[in-house]
């Protein structure tokens, strides 16, 4: 059996292990020996790696590199909600392949390709490991778009937290809302919030 190589990254996929000349049987032997931990099918983390702040999101980012963390999952990262979703919520473009990830559980949203990367940024899901995520303003607008699905209180609470945080940009909310077809509800919600 090959020894776990120091040159391997903290998170290893079967693809990256192959690129480093590691046979799948060695990978699974390391897993069975506790040298690596399986985060998701085909995604592993070195047991000696610093702990990831968001291991589920590290796994999803490696399993579906084009996906973007969205909705309530993004609101948690941006501290816009205290809700904890039962699954990692990710967006993929409408015409792309839907990722099939059984663990961690994911909820997949299909967003229009023209506005798919609107508000795209990234965050550190683990030490020196980033994941794609929508920025706070896009997250607020998405929660407003899906307020019937997630509940209006979540959308309005996220809006209030966004506006109370340092450097809010109401004009950016309206710009995103116009691009995403929810200008009316977003504008009305901002009027109510600013009247308080």
UniProtKB/TrEMBL annotation:
It comes from the Bacteria. Residues 1-20 are annotated as: Disordered. This is Type IV toxin-antitoxin system AbiEi family antitoxin domain-containing protein. It comes from Galbitalea soli.
């Amino acid at each position: 059996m090959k020894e776990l190589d120091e040159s391997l990254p903290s998170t290893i996929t079967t693809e990256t292990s192959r690129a480093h000349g590691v046979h799948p049987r060695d990978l699974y032997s390391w897993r069975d020996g506790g040298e690596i931990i399986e985060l998701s099918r085909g995604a592993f983390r070195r047991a000696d790696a610093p702990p990831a702040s968001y291991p589920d999101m590290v796994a999803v980012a490696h399993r579906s590199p084009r996906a973007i963390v969205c909705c309530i999952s993004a609101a948690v990262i941006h501290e816009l909600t205290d809700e904890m979703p039962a699954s990692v919520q990710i967006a993929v473009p409408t015409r792309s392949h839907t990722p099939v990830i059984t663990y961690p559980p994911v909820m997949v949203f299909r967003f229009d390709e023209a506005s798919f990367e609107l508000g795209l940024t990234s965050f550190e899901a683990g030490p020196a490991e980033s994941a794609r995520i929508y920025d706070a303003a896009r997250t607020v607008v998405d929660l407003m778009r899906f307020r019937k699905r997630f509940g209006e209180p979540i959308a309005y609470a996220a809006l209030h937290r966004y506006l109370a945080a340092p450097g809010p940009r109401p004009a950016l909310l309206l710009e995103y809302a116009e691009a995403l077809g929810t200008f009316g509800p977003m504008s009305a919600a901002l009027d109510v919030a600013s009247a308080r």
